[in-house]
Amino acid sequence: MAKAVYNLLLSLCLVVVIPTLQANILENTTTYVEQHFGTVDDEYWKERASVARKLSENAYFPDPHALTRNFTLTVQKDIASSKKIRRSLSGKQVEGPCEATNPIDRCWRCDPDWESNRQKLADCVQGFGRKTTGGKGGPIYVVTDPSDNDMVNPKPGTIRHAVTRNGPLWIIFSHSMSIRLNEELMVSSNKTIDGRGVDVYFNKGAGITVQYANNVIIHGIKIRDIVPGNGGLIRDSEEHYGFRTRSDGDGISIFGASNIWIDHVSMRKCSDGIIDAIMGSTAITISNSHFTDHNDVMLFGANEQHTIDKVMQITLAFNHFGKRLIQRMPRARYGFVHVVNNDYTHWEMYAIGGSSNPTIISEGNRFVAPDDNNAKEITKRVTNDDWKDWQWRSMDDVFENGAFFIQSGPEMKTRPFGLKDMITPKPGSYVQRLTRYAGSLKCRVGEPC
Length: 449
Ligand SMILES: *[C@@H]1O[C@H](CO)[C@@H](O)[C@H](O)[C@H]1NC(C)=O
Ligand SMILES: *[C@@H]1O[C@H](CO)[C@@H](O)[C@H](O)[C@H]1NC(C)=O
Ligand SMILES: *[C@@H]1O[C@H](CO)[C@@H](O)[C@H](O)[C@H]1NC(C)=O
Hints:
It is an enzyme of class 4 (lyase). It comes from Stylosanthes scabra. It is found in: Secreted, Cell wall. Residues 176-373 form the Pectate lyase domain. This protein is an alpha/beta fold. It has one domain: Single-stranded right-handed beta-helix, Pectin lyase-like (Pectate Lyase C-like, 3 Solenoid), CATH 2.160.20. 20% of the residues lie in helices and 28% in strands. The protein has seven helices and 31 strands. It has helices at residues 2-24, 29-37, 43-59, 64-88, 103-106, 159-163, 427-434, and strands spanning 140-143, 169-173, 177-179, 185-186, 191-194, 200-203, 208-211, 214-219, 222-226, 232-237, 240-244, 252-255, 258-263, 266-270, 275-278, 282-287, 290-292, 294-296, 298-300, 313-317, 320-321, 325-327, 331-333, 336-340, 343-344, 352-355, 359-363, 366-368, 379-381, 392-395, 398-400. A ten-stranded parallel beta sheet has the order 1-2-5-8-13-16-20-24-27-30. A nine-stranded parallel beta sheet has the order 3-6-9-14-17-21-25-28-31. Helix 6 (159-163) links the parallel strand 1 (140-143) and strand 2 (169-173). The site of one 2-acetamido-2-deoxy-beta-D-glucopyranose has 4 residues, from loops.
């Protein structure tokens, strides 16, 4: 019964989605920018855009394969050492006092003092976003007030006040809270939003925007039921507020931004994308997160006119793409996406798609196809062009229930993760283990998390 209602809702949603999608395919960058922040003649945003573009260009890693090689090796080493530990405890079913199952988590989760060493988290990021430090080195800002009533002069103690301050800040929450954002939350550079130790929901309001900003960590929060904000005057930094048009309803919108790390976030039901990264955003890692109940999950590159997206480099690692997801995990244009050790257990249309010749390296993931015989293909090229040369490669992925990945483009000549003597993992079983704690964690002060 519930399922039937759900299917009905779903088909209604799809009907609505098609015209919206077409509306989103805007003719050119100028129109796109105008729609997103009023006018391109705004001097303030012009300046921020040009600073951000330089940062994106500097963050771009010209030899992505070298980085890929490094990253994957760490995973394998980690598995090898955890195996050794298990063997030395042979006979006992001991998991150890803390069960961090992947190298990012292992860097901080087992520290019982994580609460007093919160900023240590910033040392743990891997992949393309590995230089992200967020608010490290800055003071702790404690959000005490879940309200969000004044968009221009936010009250001290609110999240909007915190993210619009200048300088690095490590933002935490005094108690569990549910925050309904009245308008998109404009996060400025050098910030960490750290929800560990309490339950923080961004619920039923507008989403989080990182626009022409740099160096942001979002960790340990839940984002759900996000709707568009109506737009209006919104503060984006200590010295500036300005008019914003209606927001898209993305959970997290990354717009011309670089060095972004999203980790252990649980997200569902946003009215546009769950996470969109567009307009030359790069140096991004999305890890350990759990996604459910959504149609267009991740859009990396919004338009083929945006050739700036060639600098886009994004790592997706240890995420769980879970129940009731439909498509775009991700859908990419131009950039380089490393999809490593993620668990794809549900999709209704396809998992990974793209257009405009993106590079997609899929390694060590598990793909469990839906029962629908028309949706067994993981990949989707949204194009009339010849895509045979696009480099979309699958290595050590595990396919279940008839899932298949159509590869294209040149093979990786040297396997990017290949030290010959390393144990070749059995990907399926490892992925479930590596992603076991995906989503926001229940951390208690004084205990390993
Ligand atoms: C982009 O679109 C705007 C508004 O439709 C138009 O004025 C402008 O000439 C277009 N620019 C290009 C390069 O096509
Ligand atoms: C690869 O890892 C080594 C050792 O951890 C480090 O010194 C080096 O900078 C890394 N290379 C890249 C490209 O990140
Ligand atoms: C962010 O921090 C870096 C490093 O301290 C600094 O160079 C940069 O100016 C900061 N950005 C902003 C917008 O404050």
